[in-house]
Amino acid sequence: MSQMTRPQKARWATALMFAVDGIGFGVWAAHIPVFKDHLHLSSTALSEVLLALVVGSIVTMPIAGQAISRFGSRRVVWAAASAYILAITGLSFVNSLWPLIIAAAIFGASKGGFDVSVNAQGVWVERQVGKRIMSSFQGFWSLGGLLGACLTSYALRRGGSTHQDFFRTCVALAICAIAACPFLLEEEIQPATKNRLRLPDPALLRLAGIAFLGLFAEGAMADWDGVYLNTSVGVSLSLAAIGYAAFSLSMAAGRFCGDWLLARLTPVIILRICGLFLFSGLAIALIFNGWWSSLIGFIFAGLGVANIVPVIWGAAGRNRVIGAGPALATVTTIGYFGFLAGPPIIGAVTTVLNVRLALIIVALFGVAIAASAQIAAQTDE
């Protein structure tokens, strides 16, 4: 067997860094109810914690984009991954609301930089490998998130403490990062990225709008599909958890198939299919309002949201106007704002209507994504 080339090694190293990103976020997400319980947080206090994470991410994403344009994504990944792991360590020491808010803001800030830089590295590695691989990178993020959440759940059931969980996670992630980072690639800095700060072009902003809709749907489904199954369909909490698992696994499977699809279909067609799958899946779940119909619908919805992000990130990373780093920073900032803001917005709607009616909004986003898919052709190569 011939030895792997430098780009092939970088491909697996980048995949591992996507998994590191996902595992860290999965561990954090699994500990949110733990923090709420142990620190006796009200719903308002917990919202403040989550808002701190959002603010931290939004602040650092544009900064990371400019840093990438100056220093390259490899160096920024090194710095951001180190900060990310240290931020997770800091979460293990919180014992009251304000330290948690500060720790969440630092965690969000480090994650924002990590998200932008690792995606920029993924775009460059994809270019060097010579074939579509961004979807599989996002698949590794999804698997990492599932792994982090599952391991945390197992550790907590075995009586592990929050401090132990975060510390073990940090050690494992540090080992993975140290193993992967030396194999990342140093990209060429494009002339456009050497210019001073430039505003995004309208086409890129429209692309970011699709990212907002797709990640809004992903975040809303992650937080509210279980609630819908429990409160509207009337299944037990354990069965409601299966609904989220079905959505997550179908999303991960769709991302691992995404590269194969992108090699055969255009990004525009992929986005149209994704939007229609998202709409039809939620339509099945919400119209029939039963356990099996909801499970099938969530599987379709997971397949629908699976490749929205890989297509958008790939198109943004090939932007020649302001460069890959700033372009990715633009779409990730707006997109992840949708991911983080989606759940509380749906929550606010449920206070006026109900979960079933609120999720209709997410279904309609699928129609909007399908209708605006042509935007991807305006920024793609």
Describe this structure in words.
With 381 residues, the protein is mainly α. Helix content is 82%, strand content 0%. It has 14 helices and no strands. It has helices spanning 6-38, 43-71, 73-91, 97-129, 134-157, 162-180, 202-233, 237-262, 267-288, 291-306, 308-317, 324-352, 355-371, 375-379. The two termini are 34 Å apart. The relative contact order is 0.15.
Write the layout of secondary structure elements.
Elements: H1 6-38, H2 43-71, H3 73-91, H4 97-129, H5 134-157, H6 162-180, H7 202-233, H8 237-262, H9 267-288, H10 291-306, H11 308-317, H12 324-352, H13 355-371, H14 375-379
Descriptive terms for the model:
381 residues; mainly alpha; 14 helices
Sheet bearing the most strands, described?
A: none
Broad structural category: mainly alpha
First and last CA, distance: 34 Å
The total of beta strands comes to 0
Summarize the structure.
The chain is mainly α. Helix content is 82%, strand content 0%.
